[in-house]
Design goal:
globular, 6-stranded parallel beta sheet, Pantoate--beta-alanine Ligase, Chain: A,domain 2, 3-stranded antiparallel beta sheet, 2 domains, Rossmann fold, binds pantoate, alpha/beta
Amino acid sequence: MIVIHSVAQMQQYARDKRGEIALVPTMGYLHEGHASLMVEARKRAKYVVASIFVNPTQFGVNEDLDSYPRDLEHDKEIAEKAGVDVIFAPTAADMYPEGYQSYLNVEEITAHLCGASRPGHFRGVTTVVAKLFNIVAPKVALFGKKDFQQLAVIRRMVRDFNFDIEIVGMPIVREADGLAMSSRNTKLSPVEREQALCLSRSIAAAKAAFKGGERSVAALQKVAAAMIEGEKSPQIDYLEFRDQDSLLPLEKADERTLLALAVRVGSVRLIDNSILGED
Ligand code: PAF
């Protein structure tokens, strides 16, 4: 495995291997969820590139850009084990040189859920992902479904901008107790780590009610929210039942309905989601 820090060097590699690269874009502090994307990438292309870049343009002014966890040495170990050929870890100055002024924006589906509570977030995500697509020139790129809206936004961008890249969404990887894996989990105190289980419990409660025949979104919302409101510290940012393609609100739920939630546990904002009819 090699580590490339320069955009120009990455572009040279991409030119040599054109049509044979799978890309796993990440912000680093890798965990088993990222590793599952890398292992799948290995099956889908001759060369696997994992980008590690804490992208400043997707963080709001009061967000955790500076405190976002970073550890390149630990990331190298995980990536190497997962079969990655190249880690692309550019600097912010190389990605956004002085005078930088171009951004890519997907409109409607970024307006709600995480887009509503994090204005400008998806503009930063689509901008950096489009740049990574141009630099690495992958034939396939893999993203986790934990960021369900991000995946939907990227699929929309790829269709709208005619990127000739297959987008693969991979299942959420969870800790043994149900917490969805996230680099931000490491920022939770032991008490908050326990409280964070309210997200997966809330999903489980809504799914049990759905399985029991409940179809009213208002009723399902109450069941799911009760699992979080029972806890002292966690604060619901959103807890929504949505159409999984348009991400628009629904009154009646069905097997394909997406339950998506964002909850603040202490200072850490966690997200999780599930499709009601899926196990
Ligand atoms: O999901 C992430 O880690 C980031 O949003 C991504 C896709 C790497 C873009 O910075």
